[in-house]
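Example with several molecule types.
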Amino acid sequence: MRILLVEDEQRLAHNITEALREAGFAVDHAADGVAGSHLAEQGVFDVIVLDLMLPGKSGQRVLQDLRRMRLHTPVLILSAQEGKESVVELLNGGADDYLAKPFDLGELIARVKALIRRGKGVSTPVLHVSDVELDTVHQTVFRRGQPIDLSPMEYRILEYLAHRPRAVVSKQELLEHLYDFDWEHHSNVIEAHVSNLRRKLNIPSTEPLIETLRHRGYRLREGTSA
Amino acid sequence: MNKSASITRRLIVSVLLLEILAAIALIAAVTVDERHVQYQALDANLRGTSNALLGAVQDAEDEGDNLLLDLRGLSVPSGAMYRVTDERGRTLGSAGDVPPLTLNDGEVQEHRIAGRSFRFFVLSGERITDPGKAGGVHHRVTIVYGLPDGGVWLEVLEAVRFFAIATALLLGVTTLVLIWTVRKLLLPIRLLAAEAESISVMNWRFSPPESARRFDELRPLVSAIEQTVARLQHSFQQQERFTSDAAHELKTDLAIVKSSLQLLSMKKRSAEEYERGLSISLQDFTRLEETVQKMLTLARLQQPIEPSVHACHLNQMLEDAIEHSNSFAMVRQISMRALHMDVVSVPLDGRDASLLCSNILLNALQHSPDRASVDINLQCTGDLARLTVRDHGEGIHQADLESLFEPFFRVDSSRSRKSGGTGLGLSICQAICKRVGGSIQIANDPSGGAVVTIVLPAIPVAARAELSASLKP
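Resulting structure tokens for the full complex:
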């Protein structure tokens, strides 16, 4: 999952970015409203964490422009302002959640995760696809009750696919949503990770859980039978 | 004695008192006049009846030239008293017990008889009988005629009573009209008070009633209230903005400190990672501390001080500040040139003067390009010390000039935050200058760069000597 953080306070931005990356997200950072708006309008983010008082362009305007372009990326507002802009107004203006500074990093991460679930039409933190159980809070995976040990990147790919069962997800989409700009990435990196993931998930005498569709991408099969 | 006083009541009571006094004076005048008129009428009556009595004296038609009083066809009032005598002292006729009076002809006298007051008139007249024989016989007849004057007072009382009732009625009517008028006249004051009362922190709108503006006496009050409200609102809004900005600033710094520590505790880390994280957290914390420190300094400087308690040599403080910031200037090869340095004493605490100088110098250095110069000028003209600091940087954007001294204002918020500024430096400088009646201004130099001009009251040499003498133990 890829997150955009728009925050002008450098030290705070650094801390949030680090925390989100450690929680398994790909994070891009914009230090002002104009750059934030540009990045947000590419539509490759799963959540946008937006500060209100920004140089160049205010957080409110960034949000307004994003919604005017019919981009429905969930937006979490961070603000130290009080009273000037009421929470009600922000939510009515298209924001999905609100956190007042100084906030709790743990709470920020939990809210970001909740927004991602909602954004993908899922309401519980535990996802079930076929006989695979995926706990997004603890980042653990079980198949038929058996724990499966995945690398962070493998887990992220599986989580992304699990949020969109039966849909064909291209390699490009996976790249966009799982890596931020700071990473060197090539599509063969994805192929390697998917291949490993498929091997780890594999149980003899069953059809592979992840289908590969040539030149189109990957699909998580639902309802495989033993 | 803390009794409440009412203008309405006082006004009405004063006017009524005056009216009553006027009424009493009027009634007294009427009484005197009426009495005079009534007595005149009585006297005329006395004279007339006396003359009639004289006319009623007839020749007795006997041998002696005697006279008699013939009262036929003459009506004498029942309460009247009279005595008609001739020159020989014979009484021709009388009614009632007329007292012996010593009066000349035509005189009037009052006399009390059996508890009643009478008014007597004396008439002496010539009466000629037997006009046939040699010019007739001359008789001298004296008539004393008296009437009780109780009737006069009755008449006077009657007239006065009428006046008194009429006056009382008028007084009643005018009182009602007065109350109504005064109430109506004072209504604008009540409306004004109600309007002024509705002003609050939530509602600063003050629209005085039109009626209050119309009266000359109320207009100054209206404008005084308007100005006071405007001043209060302005300072309240300033305070509110400062509080809100300060909260924003502190929360941001707190969020940094908190997130740094939380990030560190998110998972088990190596000793080096902890060490590095702690040192970063400490830096974040230092910045929070600095913000708080500067806010407290600003709060302290905004308190008024007793005049001329402190004094220091501004040139000395400036030289110290130049020396302190020299290392920073050298790193960027900026030369600080003191073009003119007068010896001048200002009424500032040494700590504040040094804070002022170093803030202005650091500000100039921060906005200077590398290898440029910062020009410093300190001149004393008359009773003013004038310090100018000029940099050769980009100058200040026209739109930002007005907001430069507002607390937490930064020319570019993201950039200044990086450079570690709290946005309070210039506010602190302004507070230092304002506290002693000085001023600080920032303008763009026509040939580029910004010029900070500080004007402070200078302590005259004589006073300075006195002060230094008093400071000696």
